[in-house]
Amino acid sequence: MITIHTRNFSLVKDALDRKTMDIELDDDETVGHLLEKVRSMNEQKLKGLPIRVAVNQSYVDESYRLHNEDMVALIPPVSGG
Amino acid sequence: MVITRIIKNKIPALPSDETHTNDGAELQFYGRVREMENGQPIVALDYEHYEGMAEKELQKLGEELLEKFSINELDCIHRIGKIPVGEAALRVTIWSKHRTEALDAMAWFISQLKKEVPIWKNAVLKDGSRITSKCTVCDV
What we know:
CATH architecture of chain A: Roll
Strand content of chain B: 35-45%
Structural class of chain A: alpha+beta
Largest sheet of chain B: 4 strands, mixed
Order of helices and strands of chain A: EHEHHEEE
CATH topology of chain B: Aldehyde Oxidoreductase, domain 3
CATH topology of chain A: Ubiquitin-like (UB roll)
Oligomer: heterodimer
């Protein structure tokens, strides 16, 4: 098992009502698996919401393989400017 | 040269720079907080960012801009925290030899900033309550 630490921003934070989470995953699980797990925490509020993922402050795609103690940001559409 | 930063204080005005003697175009954009957000009167926008990554992505975007367009310099400040109506959340200045490159580069840069840099805004209403900005690209 591995443990990853998430930071939840904006609409993801609102939907999960948490700023951070520690999530346990099987070894070699990917960002895609993590997103499935996250979406199942509040299917109604997260339905249709695009979520990008950054690991250790760089964007990664769904095939990225997570490692123990990774810092994972759950990033909904941004709205700066 | 690319200079980008994210700050918590009011964005200062940048006077026209007469030392850019090779640049015929100096283009400046301010993004200001409007008094209405999604049809509701507001008193401010409150911007949050992913500290560390937002700075890194903004600088990366600036460097990409210089590679993509024939411009000579970019200076960008994004303000975060609570920004009252009328004040600037963003200041972008571009210098280039001719106007067309500067205008095209400005449009691209702001459009990309709104897609890539992890910054989010919440509207602050008169009673102090906050509304997270609606998602404009969601399927719901």
